[in-house]
Amino acid sequence: MILRSLKTSCFCRIRFWQKLFTLVQDSFYNFLMILGAKKETSLCLVFSYILLLNCSSLSVPKFDSEKAFAELNGQCQIGPRYPNSPGHDRCRKYLLDKLSGYTNLVKIQDFTYRDEALQKDLKLTNLIASFYPEKKERVLLCAHWDTRPFADQDPDSSLRSKPILGANDGASGVAILLEIARIISQRKSQWGVDLIFFDGEDWGPESDLDKFCLGSKYFAKNKGNYQPQIGILLDMVGGKNLQLYKEAHSFIYAQDVLNLVWERAKKLGFTCFKDSIQYFVYDDHIPLLEAGIPCIDLIDFDYPWYHTVSDTPAKCSPQSLQIIGDLLVDILYHPFELTPSPGKKE
Ligand SMILES: [Zn+2]
């Protein structure tokens, strides 16, 4: 089915270019003749011009890591963005403004989480930006936009109660998704795309998994019949010296997606994608897997500044964003078959 629709669109494209060719040939040829060029020269120029136009329309759009890195900085300039903080409010608005510029299909999923231990109600928001809703085969790309309220892994114990800036842990994934949103708003992707920005991922103490991934849990519980073919979660993908191992839950429960991503990364020559499996990471992909969405976690869990106050833009690199961005663009614009993975985590 996918191949057939592709052929049709290619055919339409050829007919379109044939018509355009005739039109441009006439006007361009006349123009050159007026300038006194020889007939053969002018025809040759017309062909080159048409070829150039056609090639550019078929190429994969370019992921701009400078723009993505500016989005990483933009979030960090807001400051820490943990739930109920002023930075959290500002970042919510920042994301909403950006996304609304790229699609009119932005869903704001507001909800409250009661933290009984702290006697606090958290005001949380998932943002869901959709593109090309008419396409049935869909890719879900997601990241968390909140940051951790305390730097509990900082080597300096006096800093452990301070909030982190979350340049890599939070902002990097979001920055890539914002640049992807810009790209797909300008050129139709092969698949329908849903970008989800989860809130409340990093709220809990390490000993209490119930207080992690609040946004993805809420989304999964309320997903209705939403069923993308593949899901890719980005978390801590912007650090310098990026190294990505296969996360173990992803390997067990969404192997088709993992294989696809690693295969594309290999084709693009990205040596930072390692073939071995490391770590079971509890992240936003877990509630999605439990709800039957085959989602993998792309995460560099060896990032040295994980949950410390040193998780700043200086520890991140545009090159890392470029690698992940190129990979996602490659997936979104290539006509391979998307097969839903049957894996489900109970
Ligand atoms: Zn974190």
Describe the protein.
With 346 residues, this protein is α/β, with parallel strands linked by helices. The protein has 10 helices and 8 strands. The strands form 2 sheets. Strands 1-2-4-3-5-8 form a 6-stranded mixed beta sheet, with helices on both faces. Strand 1 and strand 2 form a beta hairpin. The chain is globular, with a radius of gyration of 23 Å. The N terminus is likely disordered. Bound molecules: zinc ion. The site of zinc ion has 4 residues, from loops.
Features:
single chain, 346 residues, alpha/beta, Aminopeptidase, 2 domains, six-stranded mixed beta sheet, 10 helices, 44% helix, disordered N terminus, binds zinc ion
The count of DSSP E runs of length 2 or more, i.e. the number of strands, is: 8
- The global form is globular
CATH-derived architecture of the largest domain: 3-Layer(aba) Sandwich
- Which radius of gyration do the C-alpha atoms yield? 23 Å
- Distinct small molecules: zinc ion
Average pLDDT works out at 86
**Span between termini:** 32 Å
Helix content: 40-55%
- Give the strand order, joined by hyphens, for the main sheet: 1-2-4-3-5-8
- Which regions contain 5 or more consecutive residues with pLDDT less than 50? 1-57
CATH topology of the largest domain: Aminopeptidase
Q: Which CATH class of the largest domain?
A: Alpha Beta
